[in-house]
Amino acid sequence: MNLLLNALVVSGLLSLSAFQTGQTPAGTAQKSVRVAQGEVGRWAGNCLRCSLEKRVWPAVNGTCYYPIDMEMKAGSYTISRRTTGGKLETAQLIVTEKPCRPEDFPNFPKKEYINVSPENRKRATREAAEVKPLISYQASVRPAVFDLPIGKPASPLPRGEGNFGACRTFNGQARDRHTGQDYPLTESKPVLSVANGRVRLAANQFYSGNAVYIDHGNGLISEYFHLKSFSVKPGQTVQKGQEIGRVGQTGRVTGPHLHFGVRWHGACINPGFLLIDPADLPEVK
């Protein structure tokens, strides 16, 4: 039987069938990768298209990246890639749980963010509805105008506070999880675009304060919150390293800092994983 299977593989008949169906040939160990919630996996090697469940997107410079939302259910999923030679391959993605760390802000000074008025609730709801289509998964995306690692949002960039995905409470009241990484920067320090892109939104928001959202193509959106001011406008093209605003303490904050976040194909991920050498990301093997 093994001889027959080997003969079929050599002749191309069995391998063609497997590529068409996305199945692994019998007797071949399936490739896999383990990625924690909020992190990114990769599959390198002449890739054209990538998919995770029902979501599909183009590769970035020949590599498939799989961003895992911080709240994606832990478990096993099927991922696939289409190579430049037309080959379809599948692998197992194992999403592992990463519990959120508690972060409490007792005696929070800005009381308007604790006992939110009906007017501000309506404002926040309206702003969330405006942002949602920007950060959600899109079946069709602009080509990538970035490569990994992306640039740093400030220079020099201090160590982050390690609070991405934190489960937050303000004066003991539970709120949504923290969607970015906070960096302790002094007020008025320049904030930089992490890659080439196009500004999608630059506005003052109730919770985020002065905020800028930049589209870098391939479904990657970067977010910069609590700015003292911003110097860009929607529709404007920006370059990697270009100043887009200044660090501030607007919105729901206790002091000046930069909240930096990213959404990639709709997934909320720790932006720190896009600042490192992609070779250090978990890889399909």
TrEMBL record:
Keywords: Hydrolase, Signal. InterPro entries: Cell_wall_metabolism_enzyme, Dup_hybrid_motif, M23ase_b-sheet_dom. The keyword Cell division does not apply. Residues 177-271 form the M23ase beta-sheet core domain. It is an enzyme of class 3 (hydrolase). Pfam families: Peptidase_M23. Residues 1-20 form the signal peptide. SUPFAM superfamilies: Duplicated hybrid motif (SSF51261). CDD domains: M23_peptidase. One of its GO terms (molecular function) is hydrolase activity. Its EC number is 3.4.24.-. This is M23 family metallopeptidase. It comes from Larkinella insperata.
